[in-house]
Amino acid sequence: EPFVADEYIERLAWRTPGGGSRGGEAFDPKRLLEEFVNHIQELQVMDERIQRKVEKLEQQCQKEAKEFAKKVQELQKSNQVAFQHFQELDEHISYVATKVCHLGDQLEGVNTPRQRAVEAQKLMKYFNEFLDGELKSDVFTNSEKIKEAADIIQKLHLIAQELPFDRFSEVKSKIASKYHDLECQLIQEFTSAQRRGEISRMREVAAVLLHFKGYSHCVDVYIKQCQEGAFLRNDVFEDAAILCQRVNKQVGEVFSNPETVLAKLIQNIFEVKLQSYVKDQLEEHRKSDAEQYLKNLYDLYTRTTNLSSKLMEFNLGTDKQTFLSKLIKSIFISYLENYIEVEIGYLKSRSAMILQRYYDSKNHQKRSIGTGGIQDLKERIRQRTNLPLGPSIDTHGETFLSQEVVVNLLQETKQAFERCHRLSDPSDLPKNAFRIFSMLVEFLCTEHIDYALETGLAGIPSSDSKNANLYFLDVVHQANTIFHLFDKQFNDHLMPLISSSPKLSECLQKKKDIIEQMEVKLDMGIDTLNCMIGQMKHILAAEQKKTDFKPEDENNVLIQYTNACVKVCSYVRKQVEKIRKSMDGKNVDTVLMELGVRFHRLIYEHLQQYSYSCMGGMLAICDVAEYRKCAKDFKIALVLQLFDTLHALCNLLVVAPDNLKQVCSGEQLANLDKNILHSFVQLRVDYRSARLARHFS
């Protein structure tokens, strides 16, 4: 523990009798002092003893340090001597090794010709046996030494190739015959080993056959036997993947060039099994059923490319991507060359059938529609002329637009885009996709939507028709919904195929032209508003009576507003709701503003036709207030402002003569033409009284 002086003194005082630290003892300073003095003397003696011990240890340490330093110096000298000996030994070893290598080279130079001579002697011996026509050597008669016999006959076969035919024709034929027999035996041995599953024996035989011409036949036999029993299920693609995976594990243990053997197996599978399967599946429907043919082609090509992706995991050589692509192309080349023509032909006939089936279900015979361009349509809408479609026709409430038809057409086109993406060459993909898009535009936009719009326009009744049914808004509503679906398919399925090609601008322009042409025709449908106004006129003419605003009994008027007002407001609210459902975006506000302005003009002109008593004027104000409530449903500021002003004008029908000028100078009427104000004042039954005329003038 660390030394603390205070604690040490305290313990010393505690142990000393009379130190005063223990309870019950009298403090004795002299005794304590005496104890301290004695203890100090003991400490001094102890200090001197320890000091002497320290000095002795220091001297001993210095002596040992000198001895250690001397010993280290001696070891360093010994190490230097040992290092010098090591260098000398290393040089000697290097010298000896050089001598040994040189001697080895000399021995090899002597031994190699000797071995060759021995080998040549053996070959000459075996060659003589063939010359004599009798094979006596054990290597040729013992079936267990077939490996050695194969090595000898392979070398003799090479030698025989160099011999002149006229002198050695017989021996050459014997060697060739033996070469062929051994080759057949080795292949047979390989086949048997493969059937027994003896991988090591297969590897030995394959290594021997590697130098024979029949090595490729050995590989063919291996490939053939691998496929025995491998294609028993209906799914040839899955069977092929499993087979290749199994062979991939085994082929490296058998052959020295496993990637070549595996590639040859895959080539055999593609060119024999898959090509035959694809041909059977496609040729059956190629001429008789285009729909099934395209489905099968897409399915087979997809499954083949998926199989190719799985095979990419294996080692097939340097450029396996190109190798597999060529195999796929060799199978499908004859089908892909004219794919797009089959696709377009099928899409055209299928789309026409879908439309015709729909029109037949409606018992409708399609009429020929105008072929004028966009500029012609714009000129017709500018002049507000009637459509040149002949007399108005009655569609009986039919819009001739079907969501089921649209979904079928879009589904067929979607599948066509998917097939196009998969089956088209990358360089032809944008062009082919554009052709499919053109088919969609022709049958969906032109033959279905555009035809329905033309028919709807032709079915718009004249403005003076009574009880006319306005079905054109239903056509607009459905056309709007359908075009949203068309636009979604354009973005989801066509854009990815053409986004990086020049065809993008062409497709966008075609889409823009279609939209513009339809919008022009929808604008021409504004004639529907004339029909709405015409219906309101019929309601007002039939329901509004002159006595409504000049009641016979001024004191007995029980109604809040006229019956004509009720029916007109009810009709207008229905049409506003219908317009909101039929259109979207800014089109809603544009059409409602046009209808609201015409609605205001109609009510304004209608009110000008009557004379108003005091109570009749109050009733007119109530009617206009109701019309103004109806105008709020339009949610168009201009329309509401017009009816606010009309309501203020109606106040001129009931205001006291003395207050006419004050009312006319009010905020809402101050900016109106004086003739308009005068025309409303003239409608009062008391206008001709001198007092009223004087006040207004």
UniProtKB/TrEMBL annotation:
Alphabetized UniProt keyword annotations: Coiled coil, Exocytosis, Transport
Domain spans labelled Exocyst complex component Sec10 N-terminal: 29-137
GO biological process, one term: exocytosis
Start and end residues of each Exocyst complex component Sec10-like alpha-helical bundle domain: 148-696
Residue ranges that the Swiss-Prot or TrEMBL entry lists as coiled coil: 40-78
GO cellular component labels: exocyst
Family the entry assigns: Belongs to the SEC10 family.
Name of the protein this chain belongs to: Exocyst complex component 5
Gene it is expressed from: Exoc5
